[in-house]
Amino acid sequence: MYCSKCGIKIDISKNYCPECGQLISGRARHMDRLKNAAANMGKEDNSRNLKYWTESLAPQYSGKNLTDIFGGSQIRTRKGNCLLISTREDFSLNCLDPGQAQEILLSDLKLIYGIGSITEQKLRDEGYRSIRDLVSHPGYGQQARQFLVYLEQNQPKQLTKWISRWCPCSHPHQLLVSSFCDQKNFLLLDIETMGLYNMPVILIGVARIVNGSIRVKQYLARSYEEEAAVLYLLNHNLSKNTVLVSFNGRMFDVPFIRQRLYYYSLVHDLDKIHLDILQFCRFFWKDQFDSFRLSSLEENLLGIQRHQDLPGYMVPQFYQQYLDNGNVDTLVPVINHNRQDLVSLAKLFSLLHKQWKKFQTS
User: What's the CA gap between 318 and 315, in Å, rounded?
Assistant: First the structure.
């Protein structure tokens, strides 16, 4: 690692710079260890995989550019240019029934502050079967009326905030709230980056489910200089009613995007309802599967087996190879991998809706 003050190289075991005395934080040393480990992990295997992909793909895409392979178009923004690749395929989303979702939420008296399992049972014994019945209760009436306002006026963002006070993000109640959202507001999100921390975003994929099809847009940075444009264009897909749908996006995609937006002094409103499908899958199928990687869930739940798919951890090496030689053969699997992630995300989201009755909790 290097000293942030004088720039000389420092032994990672040291907690200060021997040249200028600058203290080195424990976090900085830890992150440097992580970066070194990631850089060296499986280097020999990665080289073999890269050689295999290059040799197998090069003849197929020899002499072609990205627009020849994917179509796409260059997008100009005030932050620079990038490439937009658009695809679509037939897809129908299973939606929860709003009426049934409403009744399930109303039947959970524990959504009212001060009511736990024991109190809930006492209230049921007294004849309070739903939150509607609590409207006339001297102690819980005011809260019950406020909850009904959010529910009957179809305010999913307020409902999500309310439910989040009592339930984790993986709770079935959080999924039920999606039934009150317009399907056109669901924005599926997946990104590809050059590493795990403070590294460039090279591809942002978003998708919407509209009129019986899933429409995917992929914003590709053809060089590091185009990252700002990719981040800037994400804003064109966000509105005040956007509902983000991701796979591990709470822990990775959204925090990563926030950090890169800060780096470029770009402003985006990412404070949205966020449905992280990984969290739901872990909650609903925790006793059935050992692995919750997307590829494992694809195989076990969707019957999908990817052929010649690029592992996500190899994306940085393939992208760097593209930058080094200018050939698109190693960039093609990165784009295909990202698109398949979005399609599989949509299918998992739909499956959760289809099987929601199995996941009702008291």
Answer: 5
pLDDT band at residue 43 using 50, 70 and 90 as cut-offs: very low
**Closest alpha carbon to 151 in 171, 179, 123:** 179
Q: Token digits for 28?
A: 């900085």
Mean per-residue pLDDT, 58-83: 85
Residues found in the chain: 362
Cβ burial of 207 (10 Å; 0-12, 13-18, 19+) is buried
**pLDDT digit string, tens, across residues 76-122:** 999 999 999 999 999 988 888 888 889 999 999 999 999 999 999 99
Buried b / exposed e along 51-64 (16+ C-beta atoms within 10 A): eebeeebeeebeee
- Is the pTM higher than 0.90? The answer reads no
Q: Which two tokens stand for residue 316?
A: 């940085």
Q: How far apart are CA 338 and CA 22, in angstroms?
A: 42
